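Hi F.,

I've been meaning to write this up properly since the lab meeting, where we talked about keeping a consistent format for the predictions we share between groups. The idea is simple: the sequence comes first, exactly as it goes in, then the structure tokens exactly as they come out, then a line or two of notes. No screenshots and no reformatting. I'm using this chain as the first example so we have something concrete to point to.
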Amino acid sequence: MHPPDGVTARVCSLLCLSVFGCGATETPPSDASVDAGRSEDGATDAPRFDAPVDRPDAAPDAPSVDLAPPRPLAPPSGVAELAARPLLRWALPSGAVGAHVELCADRACSRVLHSFDATGSSGSPSERLRPGPVFWRLYSRGPAGRGTVPSVTWSFTAGRRDVARSIGGTGALDVNNDGYADLAVGAPGNEGSPRGRVHVYFGGASGLATTPSLTLQPPAEVVGNYGVAVCEAGDLDGDGYNELAVAATVTPVEGGPSGRVYVYAGGASGLGVVPRTTLIVRDIAALHALSNRIRLARGGDVNGDGYGDLVVGLAVTAPFQGAVDVFLGSAAGLAPGPIVIPNFMPMSGFGTSVAAGGDLNGDGFDDVVVGADSEGAVRVFLGGAAGTAVTPAATLTVDAAGTGFQSPTVAGAGDVNGDGYADVAIASVAGGGRVYLYPGGAAGLGRVPVVLSAPVPGGSFTFPAGAGDVDGDGFSDLVVASLASSPATALYLFRGGAAGLATTPVSTLPTPDPAAVTFGERAAGFGDFDGDGYADVAASARTVQEYTGRAFVFRGGAAGLGASPAATLPGPDGPGGLFGTGLASGL
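Output, unedited:
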């Protein structure tokens, strides 16, 4: 309950802060200064609120009681939200009727930006948060008072749209939960170690480090392809740190499966160098030859239990039947027995491309999108309380006549129109390439896509990727690479907005190296590397300098992406390393 004179209490609190310097919080700006930074769609370039505030149901002076803390559920740790007041969800323990929520500037919560009390298992801050990294933790509230034990601390990047709900948050690799996105780059073929390596670069206030913060070496059983596919797996065990998944092949024993996926656990000091979990999957030996197809995907949370899940596409299982495995997270990490989504047509290439679709229909469960290369079709599998359904909710082709995609590549696009439903991009190689953006909705994906064509003819316009919100307008954006020797390879940025995805690129990022004809084959928004509240984009070119490979980082900002890379990451392994074959994306 508020004190009898809430206004007087508020004034006294502000006088204490301004005159005596009480506490570690800042005085909130006036309404006039807030409105000056707000656009018509609710976005703002300036933070509005940086100090604690009471909610009508708050009870700040309630006595302490012995209650276990709630368990955070959403948004998942490390996610980049589009909303400035995202809806937070949690599971309450026995005896609790609600939660006290603290949103902080650091993981230790030494500086609380905002706090509120909520009844039940969800709530949103009453004022918009400053754009950038935010850490949050929970205390239980019971009839007799507030618990004294906090939950684990999770983090998210606050967006700029002033709405009290989650809007298409996209994943980001933050293995040490410091609020800065990190980048993992696979180099599966280096000559010094032909079994491969994975290099991890930590983000920070100045952006990504340009030399590896750590390098993962393949386990002894690996014979090759280590790092041909890498994936930001999300927080698989709910401890607030993201995990990294790495694909490789091993010598099969007595005709057994040769595929392995190694999962490395995040922690305060970064990734462990020894895999926490080894997943034995079917034969993925042909991954290296088909490495332009994504086979690991962050599953989001397909069953709504608050633990991240992992999707593994197995298009080349003998005899080329294909399948997709969905591994569910838990407090102990990934469960060993996956949900198996079977192939629907022999020799179809089912699982050649897999993507974290996000929540396409707004039911609170993340969905999975799977491409079948030879069949030319894309299927959508909905999440639910029991996990991913094994029967498709939709099968998509180019048009109602069923002519089919040609070698489709799928990618999660985030929420390009800000309606609260995730969207999906599908590329087809026909006619030099086109990209189809299918919007999500209450009934699932719409059947009338936005169609993007190559701005400059002559390339292979077939590599779409969700970029996140690179310009801070509250809408997800999309990048598409067009690979060619002439005209030069380039990465095109298409801006999202209330009316949907623009069909004309807002900017063109030419390849930084004319020899890098594979520039953008691997590209995506990987989160906010420097904590400025704008999503950043990384793109690789694995064939440059005799297949040494490079990766390039483009910073987001109010005007979009810079035309020149803010950082260049050279391949550490020399010629033949194929650095950049795998990039760990959250989409």
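Notes:
Residues 1-61, 285-294 have pLDDT under 50 and may be disordered.
Residues 53 and 115 are 6 Å apart (CA to CA).

If this format works for you, I'll send the rest the same way.

G.
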